[in-house]
Amino acid sequence: MVKGSAGALVEIDEARLGGEGVLVDVSHSSLNYKDALAIAGRPGVIRADRLIAGIDLVGTRRDTGELVTVNGRGLGETHDGGLAELARVPEDWLTPVPERFTPAQAAAIGTAGYTAALCVLKLGDADGPVLVTGATGGVGSLAIMLLSSTGHEIAAVTGKPAEHDRLRELGASTILDRAEFEQPGKPLQPELWAGAVDTAGGTVLANVLSQTRYGGTVAACGLAASAEVHASMMPFILRGVALAGVNSVFTPRAERDAAWELLDRALDTSLLDAITTSITLADAVPTAQRMLAGQTTGRTIVDVHSSIAAAM
């Protein structure tokens, strides 16, 4: 596991994990923005003096040998997380990994893919083009893949021109510059989007709402730009726009299962593999620093067997 203040790797033993719950032999975790914040020692993520980081884990139950995953649930925040070779978690946190996914692919999906699936489900049968902000990130990339597989026309918002071709390969038909959404706009703008998946928040989200068509839904799951949203009520009252918040940490079991069913049914694993980078535990600290600097794209998985487990 990666230590938030010093980035150290240290050995732990089973006793460190306590005696309640199911033991899982972890094979893979992933590196998410929240993990990067924790690894860098930023406040607001880890809520304990000493905690194993990692909001995702994939591994086999020691009692049954079943391949399972845990996404969110407080991993890496209030409960020891997935950046270790062994975890102990409550049984009702475990989600069986669909048979067609390898452990590495399940980790690449992780919280990002599961969150993207929750967002897509919130949009329902959006009849028209769908906007995705933060398109080169994990949630954005996987949302594009899922929306494309279900026949939607997709516009992707990014500030990374070098990624335009890759976004088109994932299924985006239109690429928009993030700068177009970063300045305050009119309360009601042209009705462009039947729905949207927003990972940015702030002014970006306010502009997305102002451009959403009558009766459209915006699924909001992130605040990479800002946690503050200064938006007009006009899109909600005059156009009936719905803002649907997505919390992937404490999602009820039925919604989790529906999200993983969508991923199993619709996700193109060849596209997933193309946006996935695998690193070792020892690589987690420098990779987290690059992630916080906006220098990573797609999904980053951690092969926990490539280095010793670590704790903080």
Describe the structure.
There is one protein chain. This protein has 312 residues and is an alpha/beta fold. It has two domains: 14-109 and 272-306, Quinone Oxidoreductase, Chain A, domain 1; 111-245, Rossmann fold, CATH 3.40.50.720. The chain has nine helices and 13 strands. It has helices at residues 33-39, 103-123, 138-149, 164-170, 202-210, 234-238, 253-266, 269-274, 284-292; strands at residues 22-31, 56-61, 67-71, 86-89, 95-96, 130-132, 154-158, 174-177, 193-198, 212-220, 242-245, 276-280, 299-303. Strands 1, 2, 3, 4, 5, 12 and 13 form a seven-stranded mixed β-sheet that branches. It has a six-stranded parallel β-sheet with strand order 8-7-6-9-10-11, sandwiched between helices. Helix 1 (33-39) packs across helix 9, helix 2 crosses helix 3 and helix 2 (103-123) packs across helix 7. The protein is globular and about 60 Å long.
**CATH fold title of the largest domain:** Rossmann fold
Number of strands: 13
Give the overall form.
globular
Average pLDDT level: 90
**What top-tier CATH class of the largest domain fits best?**
Alpha Beta
Element order, helices and strands? EHEEEEHEHEHEEHEHEHHEHE
Task: Round the Cα radius of gyration to an integer and report it.
Answer: 19 Å
The overall number of domains is 2
Q: What is the CATH H-level superfamily of the largest domain?
A: NAD(P)-binding Rossmann-like Domain
Give the class from helix and strand content and strand pairing: alpha/beta
Measure the end-to-end span: 7 Å
Query: Helix segment count?
Result: 9
Please state the second-level CATH architecture of the largest domain: 3-Layer(aba) Sandwich
Strand proportion: 15-25%
Q: What's the main sheet like?
A: 7 strands, mixed
Helix content: 25-40%
